[in-house]
Amino acid sequence: xxxxxxxxxxxxxxxxxxxxxxxxxxxxxxxxxxxxxxxxxxxxxxxxxxxxxxxxxxxxxxxxxxxxxxxxxxxxxxxxxxxxxxxxxxxxxxxxxxxxxxxxxxxxxxxxxxxxxxxxxxxxxxxxxxxxxxxxxxxxxxxxxxxxxxxxxxxxxxxxxxxxxxxxxxxxxxxxxxxxxxxxxxxxxxxxxxxxxxxxxxxxxxxxxxxxxxxxxxxxxxxxxxxxxxxxxxxxxxxxxxxxxxxxxxxxxxxxxxxxxxxxxxxxxxxxxxxxxxxxxxxxxxxxxxxxx
Amino acid sequence: xxxxxxxxxxxxxxxxxxxxxxxxxxxxxxxxxxxxxxxxxxxxxxxxxxxxxxxxxxxxxxxxxxxxxxxxxxxxxxxxxxxxxxxxxxxxxxxxxxxxxxxxxxxxxxxxxxxxxxxxxxxxxxxxxxxxxxxxxxxxxxxxxxxxxxxxxxxxxxxxxxxxxxxxxxxxxxxxxxxxxxxxxxxxxxxxxxxxxxxxxxxxxxxxxxxxxxxxxxxxxxxxxxxxxxxxxxxxxxxxxxxxxxxxxxxxxxxxxxxxxxxxxxxxxxxxxxxxxxxxxxxxxxxxxxxxxxxxxxxxxxxxxxxxxxxxxxxxxxxxxxxxxxxxxxxxxxxxxxxxxxxxxxxxxxxxxxxxxxx
Lengths: 293, 359
Prior knowledge:
The complex is a heterodimer.
Chain A: H1 2-32, H2 39-56, H3 61-89, H4 94-116, E1 131-134, E2 137-140, H5 141-163, H6 165-175, H7 177-182, H8 187-213, H9 218-234, H10 239-259, H11 265-279
Helix pairs in contact in A: 1-5, 1-8, 1-9, 1-10, 2-3, 2-4, 2-8, 2-9, 3-4, 3-8, 5-6, 5-8, 6-8, 9-10, 9-11, 10-11
Chain B: H1 2-10, H2 13-35, H3 38-63, H4 72-89, H5 96-125, H6 130-149, E1 162-163, H7 179-201, H8 203-213, H9 215-220, H10 225-251, E2 253-254, H11 261-274, H12 280-296, H13 302-317, H14 321-351
Antiparallel strand pairs in B: 1-2
Helix pairs in contact in B: 2-3, 3-7, 3-8, 3-10, 3-11, 3-12, 4-5, 4-6, 4-10, 5-10, 7-8, 8-10, 11-12, 11-14, 12-14
């Protein structure tokens, strides 16, 4: 029984990360109707920038956290303003925007490689104690931090989206940009903030992954794809679905790794995604696709 | 009168140009081989393989409007099928000709298998909308990549890949190494492009275009959208699978790298860059991107970075690809000519034969 709880805890940690990333994907889709492949690499961005602040410059953890958040936020807004806006104005077909985000993803990956080298870099741990044992479940201390921070972020985001004026404005801009604009909502700012937020969330997810998995280049891409899968699982575009989907992905992957073996866990995750896409593409929360081909 | 004679002469220009291009294409390996090294003839051969693969993707995306970000999976399926069959079935070959025929058979079989898998994937995937379809193709690509990277029983050699000694006699000949390969591949490219040409102009091809433009309208016209989407997938997979089978013979080996996401994106980039939905587009796209990749290869670490930057610049600056850019330029030139000649004829008729006309 202990093993089950152990696996559950690990799945929870992984799942909370996937949930955050999935959240980013769904937010962008809800706000712009676009798929951004750069999200996975925002994780890489977060890991390396976090490493820069925390490991190399030696700033305290909470400061690095906030700085990474801000840096990624700015990066996300710049990305939206610079690349996405330019492409949308040219009225190109959506695939070009997707390809542009893929290009951005390559740029981020390889800038990181050029700047930090291809070897995995050790991320200094946040706490002195290695493992914490709560309720008889042992997990790395950073893992608990992960879950806590993810939960806090998700709750904060939920409150922001529902209770604040700006958050509600963002939601309405996502639902119907024209109507929102006629109500006086600055949809352009709202879209920018959405991209910035998604980037920031993914980055802090990356920063939390760092202590557990070390900073290496592929981390972002692999985790990003699974987060993507989680977003689809829960209903692409649905915030809560994304969180749930990410958690499910985390649990499935951990249980497969624990029982069948680590080599097939990636494949199982993608196979699950394929299954969901074929059987129920709208996901758990039954989110209708905005775009109709 | 003079105009008509001039126009008659003009009609010879196109076939002459075509003949000239044809001669150039045939002479290419010798030209490249003498100006540059044999390595570049190898690159030329790789280009030919990619042209087949990207043409396949074009049938799916350019003509049927279905996005596939996992096409490298079919490439790998084609390649690995040939490699596996050679390893496990190609035991004893009495002479080189039997080996050649065997390899040929495996290539066709690999392409057919690839097409079958494509059809199988298309069956549920055809009903997915844009981004879901792309996600499904990505997931499919990842599944295939994981399968060949960590295969059961290590039959695919896992991440070190497989090495096969394929069609050998194309290497041993009095001509420089890759020349015969070039013609061998050129033959396949010719067949592939011809097939695509006829497919596009056939009823099925027109159905593809209709589906691409407006799925609902096509459905309303009585086109079986699902069936045609599956056909598009299957044919596209056949092409790319065949390309993979040729590739593994050219390279004499295959690694899981060929099925990675990066390869799929490369194919799509080549297609979009050159211009989708055309015969020439894939050729231009493959040629330019391959040359670019080779040129930035000496930069080692910065190669992929530069590739990303270039890709971004191209997408933002020239979204239609080179082919549509050229087409637009030609159209605007023609328009200018037409306006000029219209103005000239108007002038002529005004000053013309003195007939009062409407006065």
